Amino acid sequence: MGCSFSFSALWIAFSLVLALSASAPRADARAFFVFGDSLVDNGNNNYLATSARADSPPYGIDYPTHRPTGRFSNGLNIPDIISERMGMEPTRAYLDPLLSGNNLLVGANFASAGVGILNDTGFQFLNIIRIGKQLEYFQQYQTRVSGLIGPAETQRLVNEALVLITLGGNDFVNNYYLVPFSARSRQFSLPDYVRYLISEYRKVLMRLYELGARRVLVTGTGPMGCVPAELAQRSRTGECAVELQRASSLFNPQLVQMLNGLNSEIGSDVFIGANTVQMTSDFITNPQAYGFVTSKIACCGQGPYNGVGLCTVLSNLCPNRDLYAFWDAFHPSEKANRIIVQQILTGDNKYMNPMNLSTILALDSRN
Description:
The protein is an alpha/beta fold. The protein contains twelve helices and eight strands. It starts with a helix and ends with a helix.
């Protein structure tokens, strides 16, 4: 009798230890943090008083729930697909009330549609999470996680995390070129403006490094003059808008140069440049090779190229989103996002500098 009691007690104790260890917060998997604009926003703007939002149909029409989530996509966006390819849960928007407890250990998405490198970018959208505030939230996140797993484990989680930051497009589209004779275009010539943006972006990236980020994917701008919104506004025969293409061609090489300089200064390949202008130009210039019927007309919208105004329930809507490179006037379709992520994962140094994400993951798994 005594023997069976001891065995039962031992079994109960063992079961309790198992149960506790299963529920105890741990940071075993790699966390993922996302910063930037509408190309990577997972729904933060749903919780803000702003016109820059994607929480109404037909957004999300191809998302697993077939409902809008605040992602500026018909389905998954770039961070979602990176998470999927790495076998991780998608990151939740930082303002999502469900981001608490163990969910925090997956990481967080701080991105907000409409923001840029500069604080005055996107002023017309009112309440958006400017990049300085996104970094403040990242600090706040670390304090919250420290309460769960302690400061040392939190630092390890952040140091070992993957970070994605996407900024710059809005500083041109929703600032310098927003209206003729904009304040910034009167203040700066385009080459001077680009230099100013790069110097301000450098400060943002250094702050990210100070906050513990050690593997940061930094995307360039896409070919801004080729999006349906710009074709509708500035193109007569479907050619890409020259001035915005010039802005891309000035900004992106200087961004790579700046990232290389930061890495040299730090003495480590912290910042990885993703040449999104090249990735996107591939399917814009030859859509048929990627299975698209068009890279000029958005799937959802109205007016020339479906590039005028917002994508709403009243807009034209294509029946098969996989045939369109652009979902709405500014944002790629999920299919196009998958092509971009494939290049981020496996692209050669024409696309990824100094290495692709697969190489990073292989290197980091050895350490």
